[in-house]
Design goal:
Blueprint lengths: L3 E7 L4 H16 L6 E8 L5 H15 L6 H7 L3 E5 L5 H15 L5 E6 L6 H10 L13 E5 L7 H12 L7 E3 L7 H11 L13 E9 L8 H5 L2 H19 L8 H14 L8 H4 E6 L17 E6 L11 E6 L6 E8 L19 E7 L3 E9 L7 E9 H5 L7 H11 L8 H19 L6 E4 L9 H5 L17
This protein binds 6-O-phosphono-beta-D-glucopyranose.
């Protein structure tokens, strides 16, 4: 097996390469995690010399790498980066790119990763051209492997995702495809599996008998001003829910996989997606709330009178033995009051309370919050007796913070893990074709319902708030409210 690895980044002049890919590769290089022999080749239509491209990505490393910029490390890293100008949508140019790559490889068989950091409208064409140029064929095991990394969004709806999968499968085997969802590269998201399945405490209560409901929140303070053109045709459900949040959902709800193996894990996740009950278009009024921040329509790039939601709250149910009847609430929005990505599991209240309490009040339920970001950790809240009272109770918390336990620098950039896994050939943290399609199957009817003539209203909210107040009614059963900020519960 050849040891030379060529990481070809298509779309090398773009933001993703500058902010995430090269800084992550640099951090991996600094930690000594990259293969002994590798090179990075950037390809884009822009004109750069090798020197100019290196200096462009160096500025990204200085600004965005997790580790502090080190000139000596950069001196060793920079010569491993090359740049080719080329248009991957033109078959003959792809051929020329292949020739240039072969020249670098000097006839030695090598492994290649093609990273598509390009607009989603170009995926199909780029992959077809890779096929035409014979760049993805794995001739023999000794000749080196070929892997293709595809960024989100993967499709715009179920039909386009299916069409893209079909087109890709004409050229590539599923085992060569790495559909990236950077949430799966987040340390705290990976820890979900360890937390659930490397501890014996939680599994016996991780079901409908003990869990009242689950809240999955991805709240962002940023608005869409920088990318309104893109966002206006997408909206929050396609941008955040179909991919990132569905992945979080599946990791919370999955059955224990039999092994820590990509297929075993991905099989269990696919089973969850199949068991989630689709919300019919006519039921969106009951199970969803959508919103838009007030200033959105004034943003350059947003269509006049746009009804693109920048906020959504959705209630799902999972039709299987473990989760029957347990609501899973999903909520995400832009221009909200705080950045907060968390999964909160609310346990059932005690069936009988023997302690004296004010009439009508109940003890707060146990809540387990998995804080994905920004303050990564886990909070568990439970009732304690307030000292020096007869039997007064209060919610208190047990806390675990990565920063305190593992140190301030313990959380790597999600792309580091994902890039390394592509190199290693571990697809556990990448989305398989069936999961993508199953997830669109859940999202499509919601969007259809919102776009239908009988659609429920789009609610407007002020920037810097927690979204439209109408979202509270979704969760108001049993006296519950949304949690605001990891660990800050507001349940009644
Ligand atoms: C991207 C979305 O996939 O994820 C963005 O397109 C969003 O709209 C971003 O802001 C959030 O990522 P993170 O890692 O900051 O939570």
């Amino acid at each position: 097996m050849s040891e030379m690895h060529t990481i070809v980044i298509f779309g090398a002049s773009g933001d993703l390469t500058h902010r995430k890919l090269i800084p992550s590769l640099y951090d991996l290089f600094r930690k000594g995690r990259l293969p002994e022999r590798f090179r990075i080749v950037g390809v884009a239509r822009s004109e750069y010399t090798n020197e100019a491209f290196r200096s462009y990505v160096e500025s990204g490393v200085k600004e965005f790498a997790k580790s502090t910029y080190d000139p000596d490390t950069w001196q060793n890293f920079a010569p491993l980066i090359e740049y080719f100008q080329g248009d991957l949508t033109a078959p003959e140019e792809m051929q020329t790119i292949d020739e240039a790559l072969r020249e670098l490889e000097k006839g030695e068989p090598g492994n290649r990763i093609y990273y598509l950091a390009i607009g989603p409208q170009l995926y199909e064409k780029a992959i077809a051209n890779l096929g035409v140029a014979g760049m993805v064929q794995e001739m023999t095991p000794d000749a080196g492997w070929r892997r293709v990394v595809i960024e989100k969004p993967f499709g715009h709806d179920l039909a386009s995702a299916q069409a893209l999968n079909q087109a890709i499968h004409q050229v590539l085997d599923e085992s060569q495809i790495y559909r990236i969802d950077h949430y799966l590269g987040k340390e705290t998201v990976q820890n979900l599996l360890v937390f659930r399945f490397a501890n014996s405490l939680y599994e016996p209560v991780w079901n409908r008998n003990y869990i009242d409901h689950v809240q999955i929140t991805v709240a962002e303070t940023v608005d869409v001003s920088q990318r309104a053109n893109f966002y206006d045709s997408v909206g929050v459900v396609r941008d955040m829910m179909q991919n990132h949040m569905m992945q979080l959902f599946s990791l919370v709800a999955a059955e224990p996989p039999s092994s820590f193996d990509a297929e075993a894990i991905r099989n269990e996740k696919a089973k969850v997606f199949s068991a989630i009950r689709p919300i019919k278009p006519e039921d969106v009024g009951e199970s969803t709330v959508r919103g838009q921040y007030r200033q959105y329509r004034d943003t350059k790039g947003v269509a006049p009178g746009s009804i693109t939601p920048t906020y959504a709250a959705i209630r799902f149910y999972v039709d299987n033995w473990r989760w029957q009847g347990v609501p899973f609430y999903m909520r995400s929005g832009k221009a909200l009051a705080a950045k907060d990505t968390e999964i909160s599991i609310f346990f059932k209240r005690p069936p009988h309370v023997m302690f004296p309490m004010k009439p009508g009040s109940k003890p707060a339920p146990n809540r387990l919050s998995i804080c994905i970001q920004p303050d990564e950790g886990i909070h568990f809240s439970f009732q304690a007796k307030v000292p020096d009272t007869a039997a007064e109770m209060r919610s208190v918390e047990m806390l675990f913070h990565y920063q305190d336990t593992f140190g301030a620098q313990s959380i790597p950039e999600a792309y580091e893990r994902l890039l390394l896994d592509v190199i290693k050939g571990d697809a556990s943290l990448f989305t398989r074709s069936d999961a993508i399609e199953l997830s669109w199957r859940l999202v499509d009817p919601i969007i259809q319902g919102w776009e239908s003539p009988n659609a429920p209203p789009l609610y407007f909210y002020e920037s810097g708030t927690w979204g439209p107040s109408e979202a509270d009614r979704l969760i108001a059963h049993n006296g519950y409210h949304w949690t605001h900020g990891c660990g800050h519960s507001s349940e009644g």
